[in-house]
Amino acid sequence: MVDTPRRPDGHHEESATAEREALAPSRTTTADSGDGAAVRRPAQEEKVTPEPPLVLVVDDYAEGREICAEYLTLRGYRVDTAADGVEALAKVEGVVPDAIIMDLSLPRMDGWEATRRLRKDDRMRNTPIIALTAHAVPAARESALEAGCDAVVIKPCVPRDLEEEVRRHLERRRTSPPGDC
To answer: Which of the residues 27, 55, 73, 128 has an alpha carbon 20 to 30 A from that of 93?
Structure first.
């Protein structure tokens, strides 16, 4: 007779292994072989669905920020918000968003300065930043692009148009070689 090792609690090691296997998630499925006998087959690996893109919406106008955030959420994006450039910089210290919608006229730190600082961060080099501004003059557009914005959308705008701009830049980033955006 073979004596199996006992654990400190007095149970045999075999029974402990059997208990662990019984409690562990199954990596096999049971199917009927056609003759009534059960056949164990490896389970298909569960497909991991990628997380939706995270968009940081930076706008000092609370209602505009909420409308934009709600629309993007309904379109399947994850959304975070900030009320000014200082708050936006603090948010990206913890989590790097996939895209940023940046109002340019903000209190404490405007969108131009916030964008320049974000572009100095290596993690933010390829993150699309879309300026959202009521400044419709060409000089404002040019200065936003010079600060590091990838696109400029003039307010008021249709939320669908803004979301299409975000999607276009995310797709471009996804299909471009690293560092090429």
So the answer is: 73
Pairing type for strands 28-32 and 38-42 reads antiparallel
The share of the chain scoring above pLDDT 70, in percent, equals: 71
Dihedral over Cα of 13, 14, 20, 24: its sign: positive
Q: Is there a contact between 16 and 7 (Cβ–Cβ < 8 Å)? A: yes
Q: What's the mean pLDDT in 152-175? A: 92
Contact 112, 88 (CB under 8 A): no
Give the H/E segment covering residue 146.
helix 138-147
Query: What predicted TM-score, i.e. pTM, was given to this entire model?
Result: 0.71
The pLDDT value given to residue 124: 95
Strands (DSSP E) found in the chain: 28-32, 38-42, 54-58, 78-82, 99-103, 129-133, 151-154
pLDDT of 42 reads: 54
Radius of gyration of the chain (CA): 27
CA distance 153 to 104: 11
E strands, 43-144, in order: 54-58, 78-82, 99-103, 129-133
Asked if 87 and 178 count as a contact pair (C-beta separation under 8 A), the reply is no
For residues 123 and 91, the answer to whether their CB atoms sit within 8 Å is no
